[in-house]
Structures are given as structure tokens and as C-alpha cells.
Amino acid sequence: MYIKEVSIDGFKSYAQRVTLSNFDPGFNAITGLNGSGKSNILDAICFVMGIKNLSAVRAQSLQELVYKLGSAGITKASVSITFHNNDPANSPTGYDDKELITIVIGGRDKYLINGHPAQQGSVGRVADLFQSVQLNVNNPHFLIMQGRVTKIMNMKPPEILSLLEEASGTKLYERKKEGALRTLAKKQTKLEEIDQLMNEELLPTLALLEKQCATYHEYAAYERLKRFCVANEYSLCQRALDSGQGELEALQREAGEVEARKAELEAEVADRDSGILALQTEKELQARLRAGGEVKELQEEVDKLAMRLAKDQAELKNGKDSLKGEEAGLAAVKVSGGRLLAPSWQS
């Protein structure tokens, strides 16, 4: 990326708009008489590139950058630079598809990049655009004035290395890297604090809530089952009650019928009792008469049986005596027979 064109209007010694073009991509030299505005061209380039140190552009305030401090009817200064951007490999970040990049600054520090306002943090955004291609206009060694050439030539190697790092923009990225590392360390510390908070407070609380949630679900399931059991038991009891009510009504009807039958039977019994009472005297008399005859007959029968029993007992006694005599005779015969047979058996 290199400068294609610079336009200056109302800046320092340039009261009218002046456009400079045909810049060489590698090396350019501005020549002219003393007081012709050679240095002001370089100041204009630094100004539009976002330089913050006004002393580098030989001014104490922004008002000094306006032609004759605004006393000649010119109240603002504007500078625009157009860059060739035909090398995507070396293009600023986000502008690799733009062949030309035009940066305009004018009025009260108002920046335009390719016609689009860069309002919030405009100077920083412009500086970032150039820093992405290793250009840092706020580097103290970015602009080497005539009086500093000899001083730079006498620098020691470490000083020259530092100068080159500053000029190339790597120093800036080192500082940004350090800042990013500090931010990362803070974020890491914050992350550790969050992890500690999570492990010590949030996770135990979450575990407790999960346990309470599980307990609640168990209780809710128990309550649903309990309501179901109660409803089922109520339904069974209601059916039993309805059935029992029917049976009770049937029993009550049957009890009524029994009571009625009982009353009828009691009436019949009362009628019969009256009849029995009337016949009772006559029956007792007849029974006594029959009982007297029956006693006489029974007495006679008893006498007959007693006589027969005495006869049978006498016959039994005689039989026993005869049996005893026969048994004694049989025993004697056995003894005699044994004696007769003994000698014959011995021979």
C-alpha cells in the first residue's frame, strides 16, 4: 500500500485546495524554495494519518493548522490521502478487497474512511488501520527531522534495534500482547473465582435442588397414587353400600312378612290354647284312668319277669355245678391215661 494522491485545503500555508499525485511506490523527494510549503506537505500527511503529538507537525494547537489561524476567512482545514491497495497480502485488516483507500480529516477532527464516517474513537481507528500494515505515526522515530539524523547515526546497536522495532510497529504489538496477557490473567483469575464459586456454592445448591426436586416428584407420585386408592376404595364402598341397601330393604320386607306371620301364628296359638284349656280337664281324667290300668298290667308283667328270672338263675347255677363236676372228671381221666402210657413209651 502506497500513497497515490494527497489533497490539502486550508491547511497551514495552503489556502486553496492543492492536489499532489504521481507518487512513486518506493521513494519520493519534495523540493522547492524555502517557504514554499515542502514541510507542510509532510505535516499534512502525518496529520491525516492520526498523529497525536502536534509538536511533530510544528503546532501547539489544532487552530494553528488552519490557514493563518482562521483570520483570512478560512475556518477549517481538511486533508485527504488516497492509497493504492492493489496488494491484498499487504492490505490493512478489513480492506483487502478495496483497491483504493481514501482517508479524509477535516473540520473538528472529523474522519472519513472511503466516505464512511469514523466517529467513535476515530483517531484510534485510523491509527489501527495503519498499524495493521506496520505504520505507527505516533512512534517517536516515525518522523526523523533533519536535526536528528546525526543522533540516529551515532546510536548503539540495541538502540537501533529498539528504533527499528518501534518504527516497524512490533513494539506496539508487544505492548498490546502484554496488555492482552494481563487481561487474560485477570480473566483467568475471574474464571478461577467463578469455578470456586460454582464448586463451593452453585453445585452444592444445584445438588440440593435436584434432591428436593426428586423428593417432590416422589411425593407427587405418592399423592396421585393415594388419591387413586382413595377414589377406588370409595367406589367399592359405594357399590357395597348400594348393594347392602338393597339387601337391607329386602330383609326389612322379609322381617315385615315374618312379623305378620308371627302375629297370625300367635293368634292361632291363642285360639288353640283356648281350645286346649277347655279339653285339658277331660283329658287329664281319662289319662288317670288309663294310667291306673296300665300300672296294674305293668306290675303283673314285672312279677312274671321276676319269676322267670329266678328260674333262669337256678338253672344257670345247676349248669355251672354240672360243668365243674365234668371238668374234675376229665382232669382225673387225663392223669390216669398219662400213667398208663408212660412205661410203654419208655420201653
From TrEMBL:
Domain RecF/RecN/SMC N-terminal residue range list: 2-252
Statement: the UniProt record of this protein carries the keyword Cell cycle: yes
Residue ranges the record marks as coiled coil: 241-268
Keywords of the record: Cell cycle, Coiled coil
GO molecular function: ATP binding; ATP hydrolysis activity
CDD domains the UniProt entry points to: ABC_SMC2_euk
Organism domain of life: Eukaryota
GO biological process: chromosome organization
Pfam families per the UniProt record, alphabetical: SMC_N
InterPro entries, per the entry: P-loop_NTPase, RecF/RecN/SMC_N, Smc2_ABC
Protein name: Structural maintenance of chromosomes protein 2-1
Organism: Monoraphidium neglectum
